[in-house]
Design goal:
The model has no long low-confidence stretch (mean pLDDT 90). It is built from 14 helices and 4 strands. The strands form 2 sheets. Strands 1-2 form a two-stranded antiparallel ribbon. The chain has one domain (2-263, 302-395). By secondary structure, it is mostly helical. It is a multi-pass membrane protein.
Length: 400
């Protein structure tokens, strides 16, 4: 069954290069299909045992899914059937991607994977996937620096920035941050660790994504604090900030780290979200019927059907509140609390430790203030696998 996980991680760095457009504004990615197969395995096992998966996050995941479904049901009164079906796909994808967590827990994690007669850990395979995304991003930056040609299909017009296969510097940035943090967990060989951290950090710098920079600083600081090397972490942060001064300054507004237009755009989406939260405080507008709610509020332009920003808010926490209300926000907060508690459990030895987990959460929490990072599919794949690997280490029986 580990073949499915390998396929998932092989397809991970391909991003949006492989996609099937099934309808206007609806695309299916390899991640979705593989996660669907994983879900089938998990469901089959649950039916066989006649019980829910034995995982620490089962009940928080089920609760949030139920609340999200309830919000969707309530919001169905304001949309047509085709719109309801389109909106429900967002919830379906979120539920399918949780299968990465449940499925990973069914694998013999401690045995690792056999690759060319060499045994590698699942962490190392995940890291390789992230580094592949970084490498592809650098290739894009060198060969195709001007990505404004993709604006006509709904993407932002980025130029002279590393957007990678995800076609977005912000979301590519948070994956690179998580990759760098995972690389810091490597112990031996040291040259490989240095190369992995350097590659992911270099790619991160070229995104010119300020939210990703802040996420990196938050994660790096927490990581250094957790391993009791705060002094080295502060030195690393100083060097990172110093490198920002020497970044190439192309004739593009996107490479201006003092740019204001993106900030004001974010503030505008926050204001729009605040109005809708005020009008729908309990269960929100529906998870995820936000695109149609924004259309009713006249917040979207003529491209409302294809615009990728139309179905989201540039803030994960406002997104949760506007789509699922206070009830959904509370359910999601409980899920994050349980994840944090999971990371704090056990010892730091072996596997994915507290430093990596808490640093990744700190980075994602920071990035989520400026982007809908908590619900981005590639972030979900990464985090669900990482969380499962941590839980798997807690299940190991102590040696006699």
């Amino acid at each position: 069954m580990s073949v499915l996980l390998i396929l998932l991680l092989v397809s991970f760095p391909l991003g949006h290069l492989v996609r099937l457009e099934v309808a206007q504004g609806i695309a299916v990615y390899p991640n979705d299909l593989i996660a669907g197969l994983m879900a089938m395995v998990v469901i089959a096992k649950a039916l066989k045992t006649k019980s829910l998966p034995k995982a620490k996050l089962t009940y928080p995941i089920v609760l949030f899914s139920l609340v999200a479904a309830l919000s969707l049901l309530q919001g169905s009164r304001t949309v047509e059937l085709p719109e309801l079906m389109t909106g429900s796909l967002y919830l379906l994808r979120w539920m399918l991607l949780t299968a990465v967590y449940f499925f990973t827990l069914t694998l013999p994690i401690e045995r690792g994977l056999k690759v060319l007669r060499t045994t590698v850990s699942y962490e190392e395979v995940l890291l390789l996937s992230g580094l592949s995304l970084a490498a592809l991003g650098i290739v894009q930056y060198v060969i195709f620096p001007d990505m404004t040609q993709f604006k006509w299909i709904g993407w932002d017009d980025h130029a002279f920035r590393l957007v990678g296969t995800l076609l977005d510097p912000g979301f590519t940035g948070i994956i690179l941050v998580l990759t760098a943090l995972l690389a810091m967990r490597l112990s031996e060989p040291k040259p490989v660790k240095i190369a992995a951290v350097t590659l992911s950090t270099l790619a991160l710098l070229l995104t010119y994504s300020r939210s990703s920079y802040l996420a990196f600083l938050a994660g790096f600081l927490v990581f250094g604090w957790m391993i009791k090397k705060l002094g080295k972490a502060l030195l690393g942060i100083f060097l990172f900030l110093l490198f920002l001064v020497f970044l190439p300054k192309a004739a593009s507004e996107g490479t201006n780290l003092l740019r204001q237009y993106s900030f004001f755009n974010r503030v505008e989406t926050w204001e729009h979200a605040a109005v809708m939260i005020r009008d729908h405080p309990a269960l929100g507008v529906g998870f995820n019927l936000l695109r149609y709610a924004q259309k009713r509020y006249h917040y979207l332009g003529e491209d409302w059907k294809t615009s990728h920003s139309g179905a989201g808010v540039e803030n994960s926490y406002l997104f949760i509140l506007v789509t699922t209300g206070i009830i959904g926000g509370s359910a999601f907060a409980w899920l994050i609390y349980k994840i944090n508690k999971l990371w704090l459990a056990g010892s730091e030895r072996g596997g994915t430790g507290k430093a990596l987990g808490l640093a990744s959460l700190a980075a994602l929490a920071t990035h989520g203030v400026f982007n809908n990072s908590w619900f981005y599919p590639w972030v979900l794949v990464w985090m669900w696998m990482l969380i499962a690997l941590k839980e798997a280490t807690l299940r190991k029986k102590p040696s006699a």
